[in-house]
Amino acid sequence: MKNQETQINGSKNWFNNSVLIKLSLIVALTLLLLIPSTWIQDLILERQGRQNEVIKEISDKWAGSQLLEGPVMVLPYKTLVSQKDSAGKTSFKEVLTNIYILPETLNIATMAKPEILHRGIFDAVVYNTTIRVNGKFSSLELLKSGINPNMVMWDKAKIAIGLSDLKGLKNNPSIKLDGKVFNVEPDFTSLKLFSNTLIILPNLSPNSQTALNFSFDLDVRGSSELNFMHIGKTTNVQIDGNWDNPSFTGRYLPETRNISTKGFTATWKMPYFNRAFPQQWVGENSSFNNGNTESVFGVKFILPVDQYQKTMRSAKYALLIILLSFIALFFTELLNKRKIHFLQYVLIGAAMTIYYTLLLSFSEQMGFNLAYLIASIATVALISIFIASLLKNKKPAAIFGSILSVFYGFIFVIIQLQDLALLFGSVGLFIIIAAMMYLSSNIFRSLAPTETHN
Description:
Blueprint: H1 2-32, H2 34-61, E1 66-84, E2 90-101, E3 103-119, E4 122-137, H3 142-145, E5 158-163, E6 174-177, E7 180-183, E8 185-186, E9 197-200, E10 213-223, E11 225-229, E12 234-241, E13 246-250, E14 256-260, E15 263-271, E16 280-283, E17 296-301, H4 307-315, H5 318-336, H6 342-366, H7 368-391, H8 394-416, H9 421-447
Parallel strand pairs: 1-11, 3-12
Antiparallel strand pairs: 1-2, 1-5, 2-16, 3-4, 4-10, 5-9, 6-7, 6-10, 8-9, 11-17, 12-15, 13-17, 14-15
Helix pairs in contact: 1-5, 1-6, 2-4, 2-6, 4-6, 5-6, 5-8, 5-9, 6-7, 7-8, 8-9
């Protein structure tokens, strides 16, 4: 009797210890596979960085993203500054500064024509566009600003516009001001109003006023983005484009927009109340660089599919997929009462890790969705055939292959979702864990040694 109880207890201890050791090794192997998974994520980032370098090279040769700034009227202005010498005597010194006047109304209309340029396996979005601008400058506020009109140097007035990449100019632009046409020229003075400034030098002495109408056209090319600065007291912008995947940038969303498979139309109408600078001010060597970020808006032409972003999201689920697959394989091992060597777990884990390099390399050539399908079928088939040869039974191998296919399909659905990804993923994982808990309770109940009493 005692020998039989001792044998039963020994069987229980062997069973429990065997399962515990195997599960511990599986967890340790899963954690070790974090190392190659991290290497794969670094490889994805490296390839993505290479893509960004190629896009930058194409942009440097074509033209970078374009930001149109202005126009701004600049009036040189003489002021008298008092100063005291060491004896306490007061004297006055003449100092030259500038009056900056922004448009009362600013109307911009443009038609962008994006296209894709290829460099090897990488793509970049570039565009051609004609920007039509018109409006009217504000009147000079003499009383409010305390400006002496006799101290304004009307003959030295400037009209300045900014364009972020002058290499993208396809014509020699001109500005029509108060019915007169002026050719623009680069500004090499110390004004530095914008990063790249174009100016005209109209002589405003005959009328000595600033409430003047203006208009100009810019035929430009650029890449990736087309932006504008909210610089008018009332700014109206309309952008049309033959691109079906625009992303609107900046703090100001379009008032109206219409996106279809043939293109898009977006319009903005903005007052100056939430602008980062006043309508008129006096200052020395003033610059828009401090306030232009908050006042910039426009459109970004994004590629429909970013395979690197989706591949990275897939790779972040590698640990989860490997762990769930090992647990499913362990249950298969218990149900068939055939032990699978730990080395074979290592080989299966290696195959599931190499899956992500297959996904990355194929996605660069044929897109993410097709690459995901090919890599998943290849990996599931390889592991299923391997398990069938180990267990000498095709049925459990087919069941495990189906489970692995469900896991990869589940991750693919999560990647495609945006707002519902967290909800769908949480519910799906809850169902998977519940199913494994149910299976494990049945498996361990059927396999555990039972007590017999005489």
